[in-house]
Design a protein that fits this description.
By secondary structure, the chain is of the alpha+beta class. It is built from 20 helices and 21 strands. Helix 4 runs antiparallel to helix 7. It starts with 8 loop residues before the first helix and ends with a helix.
């Protein structure tokens, strides 16, 4: 009955006309009547929805749009990260955005509840990928790959409460580097830490520290402190929260929520406060509890070897052995690490940034074996760069400094001061494009010169090539520096009435040349294969710019 009150007048009329017909007619038109009523109900509901005055266009919680300005900064970060991965010999690969749910379950411990499940009409239970590591392990097992060094850049999804102010989202990008295969101990692990240092140093985010530990040491610590083996992973998940919560809160969670004895929690507290370098590793070898645990001793032995390699790589001072580091994901089996930015005194107008870890990783020797029918293992170690958090830091610093971002890479703008020169501009810009030069022009038949120059200034285009009646008559073009407003002229004709400007080397460096236009007398000869400049200009290209720097 409540549904009937939503019917508009037309629907009521259709319904009443059917009810007032003779019984036989009513029966024969029953289907048509139901169809009309259903259509009327749907139309009225859609109309009511469309007329909602409070409807707000927005993006889902925990996601964000990336403007052209954002994408420029993001691409620079990704270019630096990817170039480092390639420098270390990694191959690129990709996997589907979603996997069979059974592939992902029981790999993330307590975080398994954060996976996004999908409704699939094909009869398969699917989930969006939670990270890039498990899909990589599935790929290795499915394709029987025993050795591989790969990098992967892609989006992942986690159904958690986002903290936008700390660069935490439900949809975010990960940059992973992994080494799969049987190798001598700690050599691949040391290279992963070296890569993290190279990337974080290259991004110039400030001083940083990489915490390292070993899952075998963590498990040995739990056993030595009296934690039941059945609670290892649950307690490990609590310890992993020490970068976000105070020790007393973590202790309360372990005791009150996870049923750990208070005295056991206190013994763990004594260990998790320890951090240092290789000297702490030596100290732990003498610890009365850890020295009695075989797993812990294996982990300490590998960490000692790791520090030897890190010293050879010249990065040992950036690494800290930290017993509070646990890494909550279930698949880690050996060395684990996490990079954090060290807080520095904020400058005037800057807010302190607390974004947590900006890179992390570790060894997972058993994950591939979980997917292999015969349980064959492929040892793996890898790292993941937290692009979103890094991007957030860079974005905030740019806002503070008022830095502007150029959103295009256009090198030359083709302009004219006169009317009816569209054909000449199109010919000229075609020559530039065909020569591999990034060029633009306004999409108007007769644009004003001032409008064209203002466009160049607003978009940051460094050079303007100007062609008009006089230039066409004399067979020259004008090259104008947008910044200094200086102009030079050059020959532009090398065959019958055809403009030819294939000078990519010249144009690619014109943003540097423009800075010198006010102090140089430059003679430019442009033709199909040559570019000649004065001796002063040649000296600049061959090394004079180094002196200027």
């Amino acid at each position: 009955m409540p549904l009937l009150r939503l019917l508009p007048r037309r629907a009521w009329a259709a319904l009443l006309s059917q009810l007032l017909r003779p019984p036989c007619a009513s029966c024969t038109g029953a289907v048509r009547c139901q169809s009309q009523v259903a259509e009327a109900v749907l139309t009225s509901q859609l109309k009511a929805h469309q007329e909602k005055p409070n409807f707000i266009i927005k993006i889902p919680k925990g996601t964000r749009d990336l403007s052209p300005q954002h994408m420029v900064v993001r691409e620079k970060i990704l270019d630096l990260v990817i170039s480092c991965f390639k420098r270390h010999g990694a191959k690129v690969m990709d996997t589907p955005a979603f996997e069979l749910k059974e592939i992902l379950t029981e790999k993330y411990g307590e975080d398994s509840g954060l996976m996004y499940d999908l409704k699939d009409q094909g009869g398969e239970l699917l989930s969006l990928r939670y990270d890039l590591t498990v899909p990589f392990a599935r790929y290795l097992a499915m394709n029987k790959v025993k050795k591989m060094k790969r990098y992967h850049v892609g989006k992942v999804w986690r159904r958690e409460s986002p903290t936008i102010v700390q660069g935490r989202y439900r949809e975010f990008c990960q940059c992973d580097f992994d080494i799969a295969g049987q190798f001598d101990p700690m050599i691949p692990d040391a290279e992963c830490l070296k890569i993290m240092c190279e990337i974080l140093s290259g991004l110039q985010l400030g001083d940083f520290l990489i915490k390292v530990n070993d899952r075998r040491i963590v498990d040995g610590m739990f056993a030595a402190c009296g934690v039941p083996e059945s609670k290892f992973r649950a307690i490990c998940s609590s310890i992993d929260k020490l970068d976000k919560m105070a020790w007393k809160d973590v202790r309360h969670e372990m005791v009150a929520k996870k049923g750990l004895a208070p005295e056991v929690a206190d013994r763990i507290g004594d260990y998790v406060q320890c951090h240092g370098g290789v000297s702490l590793v030596e100290q732990m070898f003498q610890d009365p509890r850890l020295s009695q645990n075989k797993q812990a001793l294996e982990g300490l032995g590998d960490l000692k070897l790791l520090f030897e390699y890190l010293t050879l790589f010249g990065i040992a001072e950036k690494i800290s052995f930290d017993l509070s580091l646990a890494r909550g994901l279930d698949y880690y089996t050996g060395v684990i690490y996490e990079a954090v930015l060290l807080q520095t005194p904020t400058q005037a107008g800057e807010e302190p940034l607390n974004v947590g870890s900006v890179a992390a990783g570790g060894r997972y020797d058993g994950l591939v074996g979980m997917f292999d029918p015969k349980g064959h293992k492929v040892p793996c170690v890898g790292l993941s760069i937290g692009v979103e958090r890094i991007f957030y830091i860079v974005e905030q610093r740019m806002k503070t400094k008022g830095e502007k971002v150029r959103t295009t890479e256009t090198q030359v703008f083709v302009a004219t001061p006169q009317k009816n020169f569209l054909q000449e501009r199109l010919k000229l810009i075609t020559e530039l494009w065909d020569a591999g030069i990034k060029a633009e022009m306004l999409y108007k038949n007769n644009p004003k010169l001032l409008t064209q120059l203002h466009y160049c200034e607003s978009t940051g285009i460094p050079l303007v090539v100007i062609i008009g009646e006089q230039e066409l008559k004399e067979g020259v073009i004008k090259i104008r520096s947008v910044a200094s407003r200086e102009e030079v002229s050059g020959s532009s004709r090398n065959r019958r009435d055809k403009l030819f400007l294939p000078f990519p080397d010249f144009v690619r460096n014109m943003h540097l040349l423009a800075e010198k236009l006010s102090s140089w007398l430059i003679v430019v000869e442009l033709n199909k294969h040559s570019l000649q400049m004065t001796t002063a200009a040649c000296e600049y290209w061959l090394g004079g710019q180094k002196k200027d720097k």
